[in-house]
């Protein structure tokens, strides 16, 4: 894969003229999001830039082992401090990573709308909005971490051990530990360079996937016990309600990746999971390993994402939402 669709010279120009750079990304940050931010921040500091990372939501507990996560600030904390707010106002470049969608920015949307700084975005999602930024996007890239790797190279920065670890995590998490169809020979070439620079795969895998709490394991059990099959077994559907989190003793972040367990069922080609949010409404995740484009189905529910994986948010009552989702996936399959 050759990421020629991005004008890297122009990207380097935007970064080169800035002295103080604010990095941000989407709500409910994942490994690709946090890994990309940390790697980009480390690279920009090599260039002598003053960099801060501010997100709407905190780093998930399962990702706090990553080097540098302590520097990721939360917007609510920044907004509560006059000194921090003034620092935010002095930034001359705002770089959005891993999203080009207003809905995915949460409270950071207001920062983007009111800042006097130049705004650019680096992302690999196919669907987005006009967020008022100059967009550098490649929807063929398997992770934003791959694009950050390319950016680091074009900026003339070195791949330090810290950058190698965070980018390896970014790519590993967004490719399902390299099992998704988006993975190419070039992916492994990048990974080889990251390993040579200090990323240790077996240690990273242990930290990412072998540190589960009893609460999460119980949540997985409850969620899979409720799984239902539709469309002659081709579509798997399940849900996680607030009561499931409470009774399992699980945290909100424990719902991540459970949807992929549904695709382990023989004959399934698509999966949908709805997760009740403490603030109300449902977060929806879609997965497909057939001709169905998840991003198109998600768009009809106000969301977006990739062909194979997408998400959305809805306030519909649970029963109506379940009926609408299974109906939409069935219609997309039979298309």
Structure, described:
The protein contains 14 helices and twelve strands. It has helices at 8-16, 31-46, 75-79, 82-89, 108-114, 144-154, 161-174, 185-197, 201-209, 214-225, 242-248, 258-262, 294-299, 318-334; strands at residues 20-25, 50-55, 72-74, 93-97, 118-123, 134-137, 228-230, 235-240, 270-276, 282-288, 304-305, 309-314. The mean pLDDT is 94. The two termini are 30 Å apart. The protein is globular and about 55 Å long. The strands form two sheets. Strands 3-2-1-4-5-6 form a six-stranded parallel β-sheet. α6 (144-154) packs antiparallel against α7. β11 and β12 form a beta hairpin. It has two domains: 8-208, inorganic pyrophosphatase (n-terminal core), CATH 3.90.1640.10; 216-334, Roll (Diaminopimelate Epimerase, Chain A, domain 1), CATH 3.10.310. It has 335 residues and is an alpha/beta fold.
Write the layout of secondary structure elements.
Blueprint: H1 8-16, E1 20-25, H2 31-46, E2 50-55, E3 72-74, H3 75-79, H4 82-89, E4 93-97, H5 108-114, E5 118-123, E6 134-137, H6 144-154, H7 161-174, H8 185-197, H9 201-209, H10 214-225, E7 228-230, E8 235-240, H11 242-248, H12 258-262, E9 270-276, E10 282-288, H13 294-299, E11 304-305, E12 309-314, H14 318-334
Parallel strand pairs: 1-2, 1-4, 2-3, 4-5, 5-6, 8-9
Antiparallel strand pairs: 7-8, 9-10, 10-12, 11-12
Helix pairs in contact: 2-6, 2-7, 6-7, 7-8, 10-11
């Amino acid at each position: 894969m050759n990421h020629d669709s991005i004008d890297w010279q122009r990207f380097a120009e935007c970064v080169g003229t800035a002295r103080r750079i604010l990095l941000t990304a989407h709500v409910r940050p994942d490994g690709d999001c946090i890994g990309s931010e940390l790697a980009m921040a480390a690279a920009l500091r090599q260039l002598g830039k003053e960099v801060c990372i501010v997100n709407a939501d905190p780093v998930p507990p399962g990702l706090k082992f990553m080097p540098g996560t302590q520097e990721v600030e939360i917007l609510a904390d920044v907004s509560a401090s006059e000194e921090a707010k003034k620092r935010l106002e002095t930034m001359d470049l705002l770089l959005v990573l891993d999203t080009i969608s207003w809905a995915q920015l949460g409270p950071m949307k207001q920062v983007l709308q009111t800042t006097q700084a130049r705004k650019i975005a680096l992302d690999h999602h196919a669907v987005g909005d006009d967020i008022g930024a100059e967009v550098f996007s490649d929807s063929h890239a398997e992770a934003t971490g791959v694009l950050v790797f390319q950016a680091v190279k074009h900026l003339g920065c070195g791949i330090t051990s810290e950058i190698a670890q965070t980018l390896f995590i970014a790519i590993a998490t967004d490719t399902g530990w390299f099992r998704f169809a988006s993975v190419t020979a070039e992916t492994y070439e990048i990974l080889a360079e990251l390993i040579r620079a200090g990323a240790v795969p077996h240690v990273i895998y242990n930290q990412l996937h072998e540190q589960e709490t009893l609460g999460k394991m119980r949540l997985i059990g409850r969620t899979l016990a409720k799984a239902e099959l539709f469309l002659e077994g081709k579509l798997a559907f399940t849900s996680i309600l607030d009561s499931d989190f409470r009774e399992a003793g699980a945290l909100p972040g424990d719902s991540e990746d459970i949807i992929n367990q549904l695709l382990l069922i023989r004959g399934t080609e698509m999966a949908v999971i709805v997760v009740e949010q403490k603030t109300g409404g449902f977060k929806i995740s879609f997965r497909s390993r057939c001709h169905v484009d998840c991003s198109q189905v998600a768009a009809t529910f106000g969301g977006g994402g990739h062909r194979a994986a997408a998400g959305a948010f809805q306030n519909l009552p649970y029963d109506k939402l379940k009926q609408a989702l299974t109906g939409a996936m069935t219609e997309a399959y039979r298309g």
